[in-house]
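1st attempt posting a full record on here, be nice pls
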Amino acid sequence: LVGQPLAVSDVERVGRFSPDCPRPVIVRFHKVLDKVAVLGAKGALYGPSPPSTFEGVRIYHDLSGAQMDWKRRLKSVYEGFLAAGVRAVWRRGYRLMALLAGSWVEFYPTLLLV
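the predicted structure (as C-alpha cells):
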C-alpha cells in the first residue's frame, strides 16, 4: 500500500469467529513512522479504483474503549456537518475536526462540557 515492505512486530486476529463476517486484524509495526505511512496511504482503498490486491480491506486506528465512546457521542455531529456540506474529518481516529470560516475547529461531546 505504501510502495515498500514494512517491518511488522506482531499481527493478531481479534473478536469471535463468525462465518458471516471477517474478524479484524491488529497489526503492530516496529516503527511509528510505518504506521503513519499506512494510515496516510489508506485513502487509496476508498477511491474509485482501489488496488485489486486490497479489495475489501479497510484500515482504522485501533481505538481504546474510551476513544470509541468519545467517537460514538460525536457521530451525530459529524453526520450533521456532512449533511450541511461542511468539511469534517476524524483526527487520530477519534478527534472530530471541522473546517469553519477558514480554520479547523475541534469538537467535544456535550456531556463532557457540562
